[in-house]
Structure formats: C-alpha cells, structure tokens
Design brief:
By secondary structure, the protein is α+β, with helices and mostly antiparallel strands. The chain has helices spanning 2-32, 37-52, 98-111, 154-159, 172-181, 189-196, 214-226, 230-242, 253-256, 296-307, 320-326, 352-355, 396-406; strands at 58-65, 68-79, 84-85, 92-93, 132-134, 145-147, 263-265, 271-273, 293-294, 311-312, 315-316, 340-342, 347-349, 364-368, 372-377, 382-387. The protein is built from 13 helices and 16 strands. The strands form 5 sheets. It has an 8-stranded antiparallel sheet, with helices on both faces. Strands 4-9 form a two-stranded antiparallel ribbon. Strands 5-6 form a two-stranded antiparallel sheet. Helix 3 crosses helix 7 (214-226) and helix 6 packs across helix 7. The chain starts with a helix and ends with a helix. The model is unreliable at 8-16 and 18-29 (pLDDT under 50).
Length: 410
C-alpha cells in the first residue's frame, strides 16, 4: 500500500512538472518566434498583384511581433485617378474599427464604478423602457410588434445580443432603421439613439447575436457618465496619452491632405473612385459604431496597449482582468461563425480547427466597412493591421492577411 502511495506521488509529480516544462517551452517558443522577411514578402507580392490587376487601389500593412515592428509596407495608390501613392501615415475612415475603441473607453468607465455589466440600460437612459420587438422584420414596422420579454443590459450592448439592428442588412425593417438613424438631421448621438429606440428590435434581448448599432448607445452612455462628449473623452483619455495624433471624428486641413480616397466597383467590376467620399470635417454625431478616422501606426498603438494587458509607456489604461473578460466569448453559442465567438467589442477565435484558419485560440479582432482589418494574437505576441479604402465590404482580404502573416512566422 505504501509503495502504491509513493508511486502515485511520483507519477503526479512527474506529470505536473512535465506539464509545467511543456508550458514553459511553449511560452519560450512564442516569445522568441519572429516574422521571416523572406516569407512575408509573399504577402507584399500578393497585394501588389491585386493592385496590378485592378482589384485594389492600394493598401498599408503593419505587423508588430514581440513588441517590435516586424513589417511595414505601403503598396499601390491612395487615389487611382491622381496616382497618388499610399504612404505609411495615410488616413483611413475606419468605420467599425471604431467599435473596439469606444468599447475600451466604455470599459474604462466601468473600472471607475459607474455601472455593473448586468445593469439594465433603462437605469441610465429611461427611454429604454417598454421596448418593442418586430413580429415579422421582413414587413418592417407594418409587420406588428410584441413587448420585449426582458430588459436590455450593458453586457447585451457590448456583445451585440441586445436585439438592436445596425440598419445595414437587407430587409424592410433594416431599411426603415437605416433611414431613421442615419438621417442627416441628427445633430448628435443623443438624437440618433432617441430615434433608434422608437424602432422595433430585430429580436428579443439576449436571444440572438445580431450585428448592431449598440456601440452608439455606449457612446451616449460615455457622455452621460463622463460629462464630456465622446470625442472629448477619447481625445483626453486615449488618443492624446497614447500618441494617436491622427485619430478622431474630424480632420484638420493637413490631415485631410493625407486622407485615402474611397474606391468602389462599377457595373463591369472595374475599380473606380467612388462618387461619394467621406466628409472629413463638420461631423457632430460622435458614434460608437463607426465614424472615426485613423492610421495604421495609430491603431497599432491602441492594439499594443491591449496586448500589453492595458499598459502603454508606464500608464495603465485597463486592467488585464478587464481585457480578459472583453476577449472571451460572451454569446453562449449565439455567434454562428465556426470556431469563433464574440466578446465585448471584439470577435474572438475559440477553435482554430473549426475556423479552418491559421491562427491561435484567444486571438481577437474586427474590421471596418471600407476594408480595414486588424487582429491581436496574445499567444504569438502579434498584431497585424491592413488598411485599404474600398466599398463594398468583403472579408476576403482579412482572411488573406491571416493566411499570409501566420505563414511567415518562424
């Protein structure tokens, strides 16, 4: 019996130490891996081919590995008509890559004790009471409504499970929401949200993941809790201290000269300059769902702060524990993309095998409607950013970025 006991202790000690050694070796491996310059050249060649064959005007790519810039490249044109070349400090309208920034700002206020994640939104915005849910979204408002069965919480806003819509998908209700909330008559974010809550929800709160304008509500709550506009809060609490000098809701004259032109495709699939360009000044609706301008280097500073566990140059912006909850799946299986979930403000890789994509579990990411993309991989200590300015949106180049960046790790 005594021999069996000691044998059990020996085996347990061996297994525990073997696991610890394996973990240490894995951590050491990821900390010392690098980006092969020879292999990352495949990425450059691929994008150059896309430019040469008229599918992209140009792109800026930026990769950080182990806290150091591992690769930066500008390829093609910022404007195909004038043949202006892309530059490293090119400014892009980043659209939904606004969402992670505004979510981060909101969670900074969470850390200051302004609210709980399970608080109902109506506690702070009383007009969120008595919300209605569409019976048949395909028929729009005319399809009838039923009362919401539960209250929308802060966590639902953060995870896109609130039942709100974005107004950008197909369907009658989506069209009606789009016309209502993106009307040029809105002077500020409060006006937009007060209109949003008059429209039926696309589904019952907490019952589905549905990509939405919920971060616009976060923006309004930032203004309520901080006593500043969201533009002022972001500038004071994130952009200035992080050194994000080219990020904001409006551009000055010098910045405007570095703005990338929006391109689209004509009826024959030919790449052309879009007839509608993004207004770069006079913007007063400080949205959480979109609306920021930025550069690849600026966004890399924001991403590196998150990868550092909320720290940048000796200043702690968020606790590592806050980032931990933001980057875990919060949808309980409602997010339908294979091998992926959604946290607070970010998509999250949950199973590489199911996703059928190179990467690491725990990677978090998002993109913007004009084909701007980023991901943050804590396991590989890796950040990757690709920015273009092309409509309509496609996830194709996001997947290509992952493929080409991960194959270059050595």
């Amino acid at each position: 019996m005594i021999k069996l006991y000691f044998r059990f202790l020996f085996i347990s000690f061996f297994l525990l130490n073997t696991g610890a050694v394996a973990q240490t070796m894995a951590e050491k491996h990821h900390a010392t891996t690098s980006i092969s310059q020879e292999r990352i050249a495949r990425y450059d060649s691929y994008i150059q081919k896309e430019v040469d064959e008229g599918r992209l005007a140009g792109a800026v790519t930026l990769i950080y590995k182990n806290g150091e810039k591992a690769h930066e490249q500008t390829i093609g044109y910022s404007d195909i008509e004038s043949k202006s070349m892309m530059s490293p400090d090119q400014i892009f309208f980043i659209q939904s890559m606004t969402k992670p920034i505004v979510t981060t700002a909101f969670m900074m206020l969470y850390e200051e004790g302004h609210f709980f994640l399970n608080d109902p939104v109506e506690k702070y915005l009383p007009w969120f009471k008595d919300l209605k849910v569409a019976v048949d979204p395909s028929k729009g408002v005319a399809g009838g409504t039923v009362p919401a069965e539960s209250k929308i919480t802060m966590a639902m806003l953060l995870s896109h499970t609130s039942g709100f819509s974005h107004g950008i998908a197909a369907g009658k209700l989506e069209e009606e929401i789009r016309n209502a909330i993106y009307s040029p008559t809105h002077e500020n974010i409060e006006s937009r949200i007060k209109t949003l809550v008059t429209m039926p929800l696309i589904g019952q709160p907490g019952k589905q993941w549905y990509y939405s304008a919920s971060p616009d509500v976060l923006s309004l709550l930032i203004e309520k809790f901080s006593g500043m506009t969201t533009a002022e809060f972001l500038q004071k609490r994130l952009f200035d201290p992080l050194g994000m000098k080219d990020t904001g809701y409006n551009l000055n004259e010098e910045q405007e000269s570095r703005m990338a032109t929006l391109h689209t495709y004509d009826e024959d699939g030919k790449l052309i300059k879009s007839p509608r360009q993004t207004p770069t000044s006079g913007n007063t609706v400080f949205a959480g769902a979109n609306a920021l301008f930025s550069t690849a280097p600026d966004y890399a500073k924001f991403a590196q702060m998150l990868l550092n566990g909320g720290e940048w140059n000796g200043k702690q912006y968020l606790s590592p524990k806050t980032i931990e909850i933001m980057t875990r799946d919060q949808t309980n299986g409602l997010y339908r993309a294979p091998g992926q979930g959604f946290g607070f403000g970010f998509g999250v890789m949950t199973d590489v095998a199911d996703a059928k994509s190179l990467g690491s579990e725990g990677t978090y990411y998002w993109s913007g409607a004009y084909c701007t993309y980023f991901f943050i991989d804590p396991e590989e200590n890796l950040i990757s950013i690709m920015m273009t300015q092309t409509a309509p949106f496609s996830g194709f180049y996001e997947q290509k970025m992952r493929q080409m960046v991960y194959q270059a790790i050595e």
